[in-house]
TrEMBL record:
Keyword vocabulary terms for this entry: Cell inner membrane, Cell membrane, Membrane, Transmembrane, Transmembrane helix
The protein's name: Phospholipid/cholesterol/gamma-HCH transport system permease protein
Source species: Aestuariispira insulae
Function: Could be part of an ABC transporter complex.
Predominant location category: membrane
PROSITE patterns, sorted: STAS
Phylogenetic lineage: Bacteria, Pseudomonadati, Pseudomonadota, Alphaproteobacteria, Rhodospirillales
Amino acid sequence: MERSGGWLDIVEEGARLQVSANGRWTIGHGRFLEEEICRLRDFKGRQVIINLGQVNQLDSTGAMLLHQAGHMLKGHGCEIGFHGISDRYVPLMAQVGDAGSPGRHLDVHSKHTGLGDLVSNVGRRSIEALREGRDLLNFLGLVTIVFWRAVRQPRRFRPKALITQIEQTGLDAMLIVGLLQFLIGVVLAYLMADQFRKFGAEVFTVNLIGLTILQEAGVLITAILLAGRSGSAFTAQIGTMRVNEEIDALQTLGMDPIEVLVLPRVLAMMITLPLLTFFADLCGLLGGALATVTALDISFPQYLRQLQEAVHVRDFLIGMVKAPVHAMIIALVGCYEGLKVERSAESVGRMTTLSVVESIVLVILATAVFAILMSVLGIR
């Protein structure tokens, strides 16, 4: 009979048992593989060597069944050893073995929720956050070194990759950034108009719209949008390349992944985010103008005159100065988490989610630091 799936060859050598796994151990042959493993139930107290050298294909289902066979034989008093496994399947076998080990199970009744556990959890998370910050700083230093090396040797720059990233992070994001910022301007105008109307000072609605959008809302909303849109894309793209071993191929060819993958994305983000911020400011002011003209007895020329008196170039620059910093944070976090992806699809999704969360938190933290510094220095 022709065997198209996977099977076991069992050879008894006295007290030893040689078990050779062959063929394709994948989910499509799961039922037949379970029947093959059942053939091992009658062996007890043996020294069992499971040879995986003849396994042509292996997925998580096959790895789980092999570990289940090992646990079953151990339950029968056998000594188990896996040999001959291909290097490309070693991480998969290790991950499945850790996930399916008998000691790992969820017992909600055994967990303590006392004050000591809460403090311990907070401390552990704080240490993890500090280590993550340290690693990000190290990554920033590495990218800076690669950048200055490229400055000294301009041929290392990749203009095609840079232009492609500018298109994806900038041009393709203009519609969503402009629409959202326009709506933010409308919301701010109606909200402030209702409050100022109580004091008969509706005209100051224009002042607050201009200051809020130019100094804070324009750059912050744009950065958050790009963190969710482009930052997550950076992590997913680089992470998928890592899963497919494309980054290993680049290193084999003598190419630096930081120079090829990270540097174009960081530079593109630092170019596009300030430009998108400028575009978002215009859209936000336009949305505020539309809402102000509609809700208040103010004409469009009056809106422009009041806006000119309320805001200055300094207010515009306060927002624009933040844009490159936010861009650096988003690009660095996105690329860093992508390079940390392990060789599994689950890791890509987990790191992509972590990238978005970290980027948004760090962007808001940087905004708060800017606000405090500018207040202390009297720049506002």
